[in-house]
Amino acid sequence: MATATADRPKTQGPSVKPPKRPFRPRTLVIAVVAWGLAALFLAPYLEMIVTALRPKSELRDRSYLPSSFEWSNFIEVWKQSELGQNLQVTLLVAGGATVLVLLVALPAAYYTARMKFRGRKFFLLLVLVTQMFQPTALLIGLYREFYQLGMLNSVWTLIITNAAFNLAFAVWILTAYIGSIPAELEEAAMVDGTSRFGAMIRVTLPLALPGVVTALIFTFITTWNEFAMGLTLTTDPASQPLTVGINNFIGAYTVEWNYLFAASVVAIIPVIILFAFIERHVVSGLTAGSVK
Questions:
Q1: Model-level pTM?
Q2: The CATH number of 73-286 is which of 2.60.120.820, 2.30.30.180, 3.40.50.150, 1.10.3720.10?
């Protein structure tokens, strides 16, 4: 009898709807403020897109929207400048600097986080101090050095310099993130026969992916937006990065605003796409080490 009762399917009672949350004026105020701030930050980008599509004859008009959209501005900006070559140079420099930073920062951060060696705190302090140097303060020395080496107007010159100025942040953020991963996980893998290098690649590196992505996106965006070193170390228009190529639309007496903003729209699209794909990893990587 007890078995029959136990096997009998239980009847579900009427579903209870969760109580509705009462309306709070504070929620409405927060939503209005949030949307207002979003509109405030998006307004310059909307103005940039509208100006990029504005005919040249209407650049000085007071109306916000033009009478017609000049889509040919995006075609003309490719024909009248080295924008395509500049975009290729920027992609090579940003990608090369990011790969170089990760190849150097990962072993350095792993060793610093796992090994207790003499001078460890001084090394981390030195890494932090180097992040405080302004690249523009070293431009004259860098220009003279690369001039003597015959490496001006070279993609490798921009890759090396950008990687050097972004390496400190990558080491710092990766050290904090790897330090938050329990070392017992690697020890368990090494007990099973894996070497330390194999444990780092198979265990630590997948767990440290948010920190790696944070270092990646920071290095890529910083290199993508870099201007001073690209302007100083390159003189050939075909060898200049995209930021310098866009600056060429600003003349001594006139500014071609429609082409300037059209090139700016082209420049921000790759960064927006990259950040949209890995934004969630960036947030978790920046908070690494804050909670133990």
A1: 0.77
A2: 1.10.3720.10
